[in-house]
Amino acid sequence: MKKRLRQKSSDKKRLDIRDVAKHARVSIATVSRTINKVPTVDKELARRVWKAIEELNYFPNTQARALVSGRSRLFGLLISEITNPFFPELIQGFEDVAIEHNYEILIGSTNYDPQRMEICIRRMIERNVEGVAVMTFGIEEPLLDELVSRNIPMVFVDNAPASENVSTLVVDYHHGIREGVQHLAALGHRKLGFISGPMQQRSCQLRRAAFLSAAEEIGVHPPAAWMLEGDHTLEGGMKAMERLLHQKDLPTAVMCSNDMTAIGALRVIARAGLRVPDDISIIGFDDIHLAEFVYPPLTTVRMSRNDLARAAFSALRSHVEPSHVHGKKAWPVPTRLTVRQSTGYPRHSFRKGRGARNNPLAR
């Protein structure tokens, strides 16, 4: 193992390119060209520079490199909120693929606040991001005009403004939600309810439409009283389920627009003295890591954060790297049902005695 030169803490100073040049016995220009991977640098000189960098434990100044190369290798990632586990998992996936390809990411959490989003966008422009993944699942077009006017590439989920530098991630909500409805129908459910997210968001409109379409396929038309609007939070799921439980006639199964809503619904059902799935079946959407560890483990529609992150990164990369051009504006993201123990036969079913734990599909 090669030894690095260590400095006493009292002697430590901020290393710069001059120190590397002196240690490698080359010019400062050679160090700069080596770090920026200029192909004309003599191989022996480049080897000495990289050896010096390793021995000195030198970290190149990425901002200085960006000035030389004209590229920041920095992508912005805008998310709605950091408290929903879906988004940290998405950030992790995006950062993993960015590191793989020698990029950095700058994260902005809007918390559904237009002023905060404006600050995030300004910060990204100041840092010279090469592209922005807008993973807020909603369109805030006026606030994003600044990015469009500067020709900064962007990628959106579900719906995007028309622009040459904009790509869209097209989530196949219908497939996974249809699998969920078909799963409930196979168990014998016909009294189905749905708790959506905030309906001003395009993704929430698409999920609700996919549910109604799948329900119609099996000859079911849920009453308006069983079609509730939430806000994709635990608290929103709790409030929606409380409203539902106050009704005289209850559905035997409820699908939720995301897992946080479903987990909030589970809490209210338990507090009301009812059992999942014996009294009511619950299906979520997202398949966040927590979904597997709630009680009972949540049946949910999986939308892979890794698939989303990789598609978003590839879409941005296709705009900024000529060698990576795919020539497509829409990037598909699949969904599929993951069956656990929060779904079972409906109450009063003749198969009730077999119970959800004997459900052959449950994992």
DSSP helix count? 12
Gross morphology: elongated
Q: Give the low-confidence spans.
A: 8-12, 353-363
Mind telling me the C-alpha Rg? 26 Å
Q: Helix- and strand-based class?
A: alpha/beta
> Separation of termini?
47 Å
Helix content: 40-55%
CATH class category name of the largest domain: Alpha Beta
Largest sheet: 6 strands, parallel
Number of discrete domains: 3
Find the count of extended strands (DSSP E, 2+ residues). Answer: 12
Query: Into which percentage range does the β-strand content fall?
Result: 15-25%
Query: What CATH architecture of the largest domain would you give?
Result: 3-Layer(aba) Sandwich
Task: Please trace the helix and strand order, writing H or E for each element.
Answer: HHHHEHEHEHEEHEHEHEHEEHEE
What's the average pLDDT? Answer: 86
What does this structure look like?
The protein has helices at 17-24, 28-35, 43-56, 62-69, 86-100, 114-126, 141-149, 173-187, 202-217, 234-245, 259-271, 305-320, and strands spanning 74-79, 104-109, 131-135, 154-157, 166-171, 192-196, 227-229, 253-256, 281-286, 299-302, 330-333, 336-338. Strand 3 (131-135), helix 7 and strand 4 form a beta-alpha-beta unit. The strands form two sheets. The protein has a six-stranded parallel β-sheet, sandwiched between helices. Strands 7-6-8-9-10-12 form a six-stranded mixed β-sheet, with helices on both faces. Residues 8-12 and 353-363 have low confidence and may be disordered. The chain has twelve helices and twelve strands. The chain folds into three domains: 9-69, lambda repressor-like DNA-binding domains (434 Repressor (Amino-terminal Domain)), CATH 1.10.260; 74-171 and 305-334, Rossmann fold; 173-302 and 337-358, 3-Layer(aba) Sandwich (Rossmann fold). The radius of gyration is 26 Å and the shape is elongated. It is an alpha/beta fold.
